[in-house]
Design goal:
Two copies of one chain form a homodimer. Chain A is of the alpha+beta class and 273 residues long. Chain A contains eight helices and 14 strands. In chain A, the strands form two sheets. In chain A, strands 6, 7, 8, 9, 10, 11, 12, 13 and 14 form a nine-stranded mixed sheet that branches.
Chain lengths: 273, 273
């Protein structure tokens, strides 16, 4: 198994498979996270684990212990290696029917995959986005959570597979910009660094939160607010971020172009802290 | 395996398991249906299969052939038996990332479970519902489809496990009544039989469609419309329906009670056609 490009552990074992009765499959009844692992240790692990626990708790799943997950990382990853971990926690196996069983044992899946090979120009020059037609639905009970109900993201990402675009920009049903399919989103207007409110729709990513926390080191005031596409197109700089590539500058959306800026580079440096 | 209460086939085989890389698990990237199987034959199979194909097509999955699925039913079910089939079709196995792979082989899962044991009074006297706090989100790209993104239903059903209630009534974010967590919904006002519009949210169930098609035999005019909770509470009769129990009269929601009516019985008879 360790020779395959993707390797994984299910509940700590290499022999188990996912049950056809797992509620993660039946209903998307679970959560996940994706992050880098360097020398067997997840980058920003305390924050990633805290968010995993919070997301599990929001839908009533008791997250497996950090020790169990760390033991999985020790088995799957090796020293002197930088790779990607995806952790999926589902509510576990259940009979037919939406009601969660009285007693469930969460299913814990840790998948390892190689770091994506990003074009160097994404970092040095910036990237282009398309604007998705698929909206992000408003669901205050699930907003912010990185849960397994991601069909919106699948449909939105499938709208353009043209490699000129690294991702698609998703708006909510009211026309507010929320996020990209695999990234959070910031705009800079002067000294203000604004990221969309995700209390009605979207994912509250760890890198987004870290940028909000750290922005003051760049003499920027981080804000969470409602952003329309017109606000984006008139912003001084536009940034997308996630746990794998850090931050990239958006240089083009549709017919709107931005000159090269320094913010994405500065944020990537800051995220190394 | 055939001795267990739940039995299943994955891609026609009993040995396979679900891959940890299946997009049904990763993203809820798939659809499902639940229906009765009598003497190895699914009830209303042409309509159920047509809806399965339509739902697959709506998210870009090519549905396995009816012959393959029928062969699965022949293996899993036996003559002189009435049981429940759940069919899950996912987009198949994929690498990490939302974009659908260029080539995928859908995963086909058929699960068999016993018919639920419903209280006889649900049929003879009717049922009670609670009103869910969890709203149904508006997502026009996914509305109507019975897809695997069902966390809303899980949270809504978990709001009350008091056995006095058979299900919970779900409203959309605008306050329109949409459905129950496991049933579609009708109200009768005089000779009008109205079911909620599901073009923005909800599932367009097969039994709902059959009732719309057949209502004229009961001298009722079927309509699809926007229904508020106040419309429900002042209706002459309230009905919930699904493929397993047919139709039940709702006798109580909150403090509102309805006298016994004959519509649910008449609909169940009609659905036998």
């Amino acid at each position: 198994m360790m020779n395959k490009q993707h390797t994984y552990l299910i509940n700590g074992g290499t022999d188990d498979a996912v049950s056809a009765l797992d509620r993660g499959l039946s209903y998307g009844d679970g959560v996940f996270r994706t992050f880098q692992v360097v020398d067997c240790v997840p980058v920003n692990w305390p924050i990633q684990y805290q968010k995993l626990v919070a997301d599990c708790g929001a839908i009533g799943i008791v997250c497996p212990s950090a020790e169990l997950l760390m033991a999985d990382f020790q088995v799957l990853f090796t020293i002197d290696e930088t790779a990607v971990a995806k952790v999926i926690i589902t509510r576990g196996i259940g009979e037919r029917g939406y009601a969660p069983p009285a007693v469930t044992t969460p299913t814990r899946i840790v998948l390892k995959s190689p770091m994506p090979v990003y074009a160097e120009t994404n970092f040095s020059e910036g990237v282009s986005l398309y604007v998705c037609k698929t909206p992000v639905a408003h669901q205050p009970m699930l907003a912010g959570i990185k849960h397994l109900n991601r069909l919106e993201n699948v449909l939105a990402r499938a709208e353009s597979l043209d490699p000129v675009y690294v991702d698609g920009l998703m708006l909510d049903v009211d026309g507010h910009v929320i996020e990209c399919t695999s990234a959070n989103f910031f705009i800079r207007i002067g000294k203000r660094l604004i990221t969309p409110d995700v209390t009605q729709a979207g994912v509250a990513g760890v890198t987004r939160q870290r940028i909000v926390d750290l922005a003051h080191y760049l003499q920027l005031t981080a804000e969470i607010g409602h952003i329309r596409l017109s606000d984006v197109l008139s912003a001084d700089e536009v940034i997308i971020c996630n746990s794998l590539y850090g931050a990239w500058q958006v240089r083009r959306i549709g017919d709107t172009h931005w000159p090269a800026g320094s913010l994405a580079h500065d944020l990537r440096e800051l995220l190394k802290v």
